[in-house]
Amino acid sequence: xxxxxxxxxxxxxxxxxxxxxxxxxxxxxxxxxxxxxxxxxxxxxxxxxxxxxxxxxxxxxxxxxxxxxxxxxxxxxxxxxxxxxxxxxxxxxxxxxxxxxxxxxxxxxxxxxxxxxxxxxxxxxxxxxxxxxxxxxxxxxxxxxxxxxxxxx
Length: 153
What we know:
Largest sheet: none
Number of helices: 5
Low-confidence stretches: none
Strand content: under 5%
Radius of gyration: 16 Å
Shape: elongated
Mean pLDDT: 83
Structural class: mainly alpha
């Protein structure tokens, strides 16, 4: 998809804020059911999403960000927000399941940014989307390490 810079920035910030909200909701659900280890995973993912949204906002403070209505976003769900029903999230999730769920979300976020960069006609969008994709790739790599450390043979 081809985005104007203000429209792309609106999508990027919304993507990260929605991910933060979803991870926070999941952490609260896990805590309510005394699944503290999994709640910690989701709290950490919420923190990462919040930091990424903050970084995007800081890098773009002098740029215009489009004010889009919910139906103007070009997605059914923001890419880093998994579908509860489809992804099987419930209060009995293990930390490994939570990490795998988070990894799938980060991969979708990375793919969103890569696709935006590949189709961008605007050089600023291309550059910014590529940088965001690279950051998401780092998140995926970090999750891969966490998964490896939390998998039992």
